[in-house]
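Table S7 (text form). Paired inputs.
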Amino acid sequence: MQMYRGLNVATAKATEEEREGVPHHLLDFVDPRKEISIHEFNKLAMDKISFLLNASGKLPIVVGGTHYYIQSLIWNSLLDVNVNYSEEDHDNLEALSTEELYKKLLEVDPDQPHHPNQRKRILSDLRLYQETGVAPSVLRKQQNAKRDNEEQLDNVVIWLSCNEKTLNDRLDHRVDKMVEAGLLEENLNFIKQFLNESNPDRGVWQAIGLKEFMPLCWDAEHHFNGRLELSQHDEDVKNALDRVKKDTQQYAKRQITWIRNRLLSRVKHLIQVDTSQLDRWEDVVQRPVENVVEHLLDGTLPDVKVNHAFWEQQSASLEAEEG
């Protein structure tokens, strides 16, 4: 969502101060009235990564919360990205007849191989298309041309984790700080400027921090009424903020599930660092991560599954050698 212009507060974009002079790429560049697919993102990101590595000699750091976008960069595989499909989208397709589903699939993928009665496979392809913006038959051809587990670039996945209570407390606090930073005013101005020229069911309009307030902005006849101008103590606005917190926590859980189910078993090098205790940041987070990056830059990453315990042992060994 941070690729779209606007909604700096709602999408928690790093401020200029937070960036500390470090260039950030593919941020704040997509027209919010349009939609960018994972396929388009993949090409833009790989072009930028290649430029930084080859022309600039710099090590890119890919940061994100939408893990299937990152996964597409690691393995160049888009066939399993549809696990993030929302329940609402699922229900919308499920409500259609098999004949209607097949017709929709033919519109976006004329080369699809399914029989008109294969409802389950048709549904799966439609969901895949809505997530990627690419015809499933095209994705399969790409998949067959490249081994799924062949990583495109040497990489290390760094998982910043913490215990569940700490995570939820931090997320709730972040929402409160977003309100202080002008979340309601930002949403209202954004909706006024772009809603009439956009599809509110797609793209940036599904961002957590925006979508929860949409019902407050129009009446029963879908006329804009600007209710977000009301005080944040208004009951409806308070309820919307509660939904933002709940949706954020649920999204964080899905992120963790994705890492455990999709990355841990496949990625070559992954380090999990526990950020629960900020007073131990240097020992528990900073030093282990710096060791990993140094090995990556030197080309000396061990051919073993990297984890936190391993790098604690590495750190101890390095200290012993230096001592």
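Next pair, protein 2 of 2.
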Amino acid sequence: MRLATVYDKISNEPRPVFELPGGQRVELRELFRVESPSTLPPDAAGADAADAELAEVPLYFTDLAKTVEFLDDVIDAVRQWSRQQSEHADAQGEPRTTTRVDQMPFLPPVPVVRNFREFDAFEQHAKAWRARHDLKLSPAWYDAPSFAFANGAALVGHENPVHAPADSDELDYGLQIAAIIGRGGRDIRPADAWKHIAGFTIVNSFSARDVERREIAIGVGRAKSRDFATAVGPYLVSLNSLRDRIDADDRLHLAMRA
């Protein structure tokens, strides 16, 4: 399943959506109508019933940060919603009308993140980057996954504008894949890692290379050269959609291009 968050300029609100096979995007709140009858008061009807439905929409239908924590429930709701759509089409000759959000611009799939870490996980890339700066890959790199805390406040959505540092003339991109964590944990064993991943998305980690060189020379670490913008999305692809891409050694096989 493919999930995203779009921006409603009229209401000034983010709207979590899922994508249908044909490419149409549907608000996650539509799924709540599948579950709503049991939550409505007995005398709710007509417009009042619709208001009651919206008043009690669970948070995981309106915020993708919560959606990823309850993703199995959401996937079940999508399946039930799809069945209802098919039944309605069989009976009425057309699918039930839903809120159209296809023209709304993308936000990052999860617009507000609790923690954003950028890992240095690919050996070939790690060696190549260090070689450009006359450095060698430390033997300690192989001891444990290394990462830097990245700026979660500077995430931008697909095809949104990016403003580079004013003193930089060497803006660069960095194609990455991001794992979205849906289930918390501590000291997680490698064999259990998949249980904590809700899905994956694409990341473009922008950098200002000329500023980066100055920061590396100081020796404290990269700062302004990397924290001005990171593009994420457009979609979060759920792990259940990628099971056939995971081999016997737990390696994920995907093709990415930039």
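Residues 2-104 form one domain.
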